[in-house]
Structure formats: C-alpha cells, structure tokens
TrEMBL record:
PANTHER family: NADPH-DEPENDENT 1-ACYLDIHYDROXYACETONE PHOSPHATE REDUCTASE (PTHR44169). This is SDR family oxidoreductase. The keyword Endoplasmic reticulum does not apply. Belongs to the short-chain dehydrogenases/reductases (SDR) family. It comes from Synechocystis salina LEGE 00031. It comes from the Bacteria. Keywords: Oxidoreductase. The keyword Secreted does not apply.
Amino acid sequence: MPMTCDIANKIILVTGANRGIGKVLVESFLEHGAAKVYAAVRNLDSAAPLVEQYGDKVVPIFIDLADPESIATAAQTATDVDIVVNNAGVQKVASPLDEGAIACLKSEMETNVYGLIAMAQAFAPVLKANGGGAFVQLNSVVSLKSFSNVATYSASKAAAYSITQALWELLGEQGTLVLSVHPGPLATEMTHASGRADIAEPPTLAADAIIDALRSGEFHVFPHDTMAKQMGTAYQTFAKSVIEVNYG
C-alpha cells in the first residue's frame, strides 16, 4: 500500500507563496480543509493579501531558497508542519549559446537545486517528528525535456528532479511521502517571461493534481494541462519500470 496524506486539518508550508502557483496552492489547501498554511516568502509584506483573506490560518514566514540560514531558521519556527511544498524557484531566459548562460545556470542551481537540498535537510527531521507527512517538489515538464530558450532553467530542474528521486527513497524510509510535480506552462509570471503565455493554462490544475496525489500516494504528478498530460502519458511506463524501482 502506498503512503498517502489527506490535507484535511494538516499544517502546510509553501515556499513562493505570494504569487503564481504558490499562491493558488495556499488558497486551494485552505479551501480543502487545511488547518494552517505557512506562507514562505522572501518579503513578508507580500503575503499580506493572503492574511487579509484567511486571517490567522495564514502565517507568513521568511524563506529565501538561496539563503540556507533562512531555511534552517524557518524549520526551527514551523515545528508543527505536516506537509512541505517546495514551490519557489527562479528562471532565467537563456540558451546554452548566450554569453551569460553559465551565470544564469549558477543562479538557478543555487535556488532550484541547492535550495531544495537545504529544504529537505532542514524539514526532514520536522516531518519525521510529526509522523511522516509529505514533501512536495515542483519540478516542471522542463525537468524531462529541455527547451532551448530556457535551457539553463531546464538543466536546473532536471537536477532537482534527480534529487527528488533520491528524496523519495530516503524520506520514504521515515514514512514521508514525496511527490515530484511536473506541470506544463501555467498562467504565471514565469511562464509569461519564457514566451509561452499563449499556451498557458490555469495554475489551479497543479493544485488539484497535488491534492489528488497526496491522497493516492503517487510519486510522479502530471497536472491535467495539455503539455503535462502528453508528457506524462509518454513517460509513465519508463517512470514505473525504471524510476520507481528499488534496485537495492
């Protein structure tokens, strides 16, 4: 039987909670019965609209994924958290041939990969102490297929997906469910910046998929946007036959 995690009455932390997918996640979790959401942001004032809407069910907390100390401090504060959703990330529009490609990749790796590792290291003991819970990582379809104009971002997300696979194995040993979420272009500022706003779909699709996957215990999560569905269907056999196999 797979591990599962219903969000009803749970305490959840979401990074990048002030906009885009993160903001929608906060709203969806609370509407589906979460007891409290830590809105992890780099600017605490940016979470004010969520506090105005939901009152003390939203608790702003400072996390900058490029600042490991802020992550460690947050884990010492949010000791009651049951589910951690690492949604925040940075994207540069850069191809491998652009002059600044290496600098872009360094920046993206610092937040999207090193930040993920720091989040896992800081919050794994918290989740274990609270009974296991879940760790959710937003990885994107670009973790599976590189797009040339955001190639450095794609590379950082591919690395994050690799780390997430390791976390699935390691955190599973302590009873923590791990999800790797791979949305396609959703209607966010990041998608607009990448030049794919014309095919973007509602970010609520990601929230709905995460809630369903927490309940079912699925590791790979492909929201029902057009691109994610297409890739998920093609990738499913490989994922089940290779990625989700313990070679022990």
